[in-house]
Design brief:
Elements (H helix, E strand, L loop, with lengths): L2 H7 L5 H8 L3 H10 L3 H10 L8 H9 L1
Length: about 70
């Protein structure tokens, strides 16, 4: 998932509201915007959104195989 996917899912909510719902500091959202959402966090967000947002599974599988 991309940061834009995350913003689309939360449909115009403020960073403050998104950070509360995800349980991450607002600064972490800025990090995600600049650097992408880490695969592990993507998996957590997938669970938090009941699968509406999908983690980038191929990258996660490569990590497990290494």
């Amino acid at each position: 998932m991309t940061f834009d996917d995350l913003l689309d899912y939360f449909d115009g909510q403020s960073y403050r509201d998104i950070s509360k719902q995800l349980g991450v500091p607002i600064g972490q959202l800025t990090y995600y915007k600049q650097n992408g959402i880490p695969e592990g966090r993507q998996a957590i967000i997938e669970l938090q959104t009941n699968g509406d947002l999908k983690a980038d599974i191929p990258k996660l599988i490569k990590l497990e195989e290494a």
